[in-house]
Amino acid sequence: MPARLAAVAALLLPPAAAAAPPNVVLVFADDLGYGDLGCYGAKDIKTPNLDRLANEGVRFTDFHASQPVCSASRASLLTGCYANRVGIHGALGPGARHGIHADETTLAEVCKSKGYATGMVGKWHLGHHPQFLPTRHGFDSYLGLPYSNDMWPNHPEAKKGTYPPLPLFDGEKVVNADVTAADQAKLTRQYTERAVKFVAENKARPFFLYVAHAMPHVPLFAGDAFKGKSKAGLFGDVIQEIDWSVGEILKALDEHKLADNTLVVFTSDNGPWLSYGDHAGSAGPLREGKGTVWEGGVRVPFLARLPGTIPAGAGCREPAMAIDVLPTVAKLVGAEPPKRPIDGKDIGPLLRAEPGAACPHEAYFHYFAQGELQAVRSGKWKLILPHTYRTMQGQEPGKGGTPGRYRQVKVEAAELYDLDADVGEAKNVAADHPEVVKRLLGLAEKARADLGDALTKRTGSGVREPGRLPPE
Ligand code: MG
Question: Domain containing 462 — which CATH number?
């Protein structure tokens, strides 16, 4: 075609016709620490498939869960909001009578607005009553446990009678009313098979697949093919099975020729549950773990691959948080952002490793427990606010699935850490930088006015109610 004609034809063709909208696969591990993957320094756990993802995409080294606990973390990932904004705190148990509100917009609904097929396998944890289930919040299909796998009568730590039998859902139907230990050992494989099937069934249209593994949350279970295979005990076996699972999904994308047009993301909901000792993961060089806002509780692996868009082998050292995933995906798939205000921002420039790309937030806020603002992060600075946290320092470690006992530690006055120089948060430099402390305290005040703070007894003007069952 002559050049002029080609130019005219290019003008007439709508740009959307040039490329199909990208698929999105989001894999979420549970209680996997910053140091638990080969590509993040693990020596005794082999994760070739996740390492491949890092080599073919971008690896973030300063990515955070918004809260160091399951339900709150998931609420942020799926709504783009701080969890306390949408009224979800802590970890919802089988007795919970609330869940995600019908008026919140989930990542699945964002994708659905653009005609995506949406599927989920794994742990939901945003309410187990029918109106809160994934199928009522944007997912066409669902297979998984409604909450954590330790909320289970057979968990050695569950006092007899504390928990009802643990159900497995397919859609809105309970297909296994009493999950056994043998069933738990099959979960990772079962989720993987369903995920691979979903990819095959939806290969001809854009799709969003959310794979939220039950593992490596305790009680740990590995499939027969993985037991005893790692050099890091049962915990390592479990991670190697998750790595296998990621490999199966990557293989399915390759087989259906979808790899070049699929964003694959892997991350974790919070850091390692350290009281479980040899059944817990590792936060690598970071301080503390799950249930604390020290880096070990909130900094997690984050890998993303989208060939042709994300440069292979890129690294990102800028701070980012799970609240940013929803707006980033919305932008990528060309969807409108949710109608209700959200907290996250598009981190597409960071994913694409654009020159000069920077964190789009002045600050991130680390809430924990029932709406306690415990830390503020701005650039390289992190201010730990006065609060009480748990530690295993000096305690007898857990073993073989039985946890040790945490001890409580009180932070009496605000502490400041320079995370560029001191990622392990070992040296409080508040006295050397009073102007930085003052600025971060000012940011904390703004957050309290909007999102509240139980530590200073503040009610936020911007917090919303979760969905609730009518009173009994
Ligand atoms: Mg968790």
Answer: 3.30.1120.10
